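ARCHIVE CARD
Drawer: 12
Card no.: 0347
Subject: one protein chain, sequence and derived structure
Cross-reference: see card 0346
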Amino acid sequence: GHDEEVGAEVRVVVSLVELARSLGYVHMSNVFMMGDARGAMMTYLAMRNGARINAAAVVGSETDLSANLKRRPELREGYSKNVPEFDNRPDEILRSRSAIFWPESISAPLLLMHGGNDWRVPVTQDFEFANKLESLRRPYELTVFEGDVHLLSFNWRERDRKTIEWFRRHMAK
């Protein structure tokens, strides 16, 4: 299809969970989701759109697209080109894709991991999101890798180890 920068393609992610369910041999009581960067936003939106998962892990997640667009105006061109109706309804569209505005939709335990030197998405977005999850008493864990960058390139082994540990902790018995 067409890349809508975390738009209609989220339906594909949600439908993959349902496809797995229909196969009959997938252990559906243990479904997990992991997303880096844009994949993190897809993870949030998949949960909001009904994906039933045990737990999720995200890396370098952008939870407030409007705030990031103010910081990085060069992103506007990509949104204008790829996101249907962006030029007509930018605030509404960015808000609908920004988990900071709907943390109650995060239905599964969430592992947030972020690089302390991430220039693409400031780690403060995860701090703000964690505060919202905390106020809702949602299960989460936040780990900041000081000195690391957007996708945790310097700590990828630790990122992967923590993700696997998180998923194991949330497996159905």
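Annotation on reverse: The chain has a mean pLDDT of 92. The chain is about 40% helix and 15% strand.
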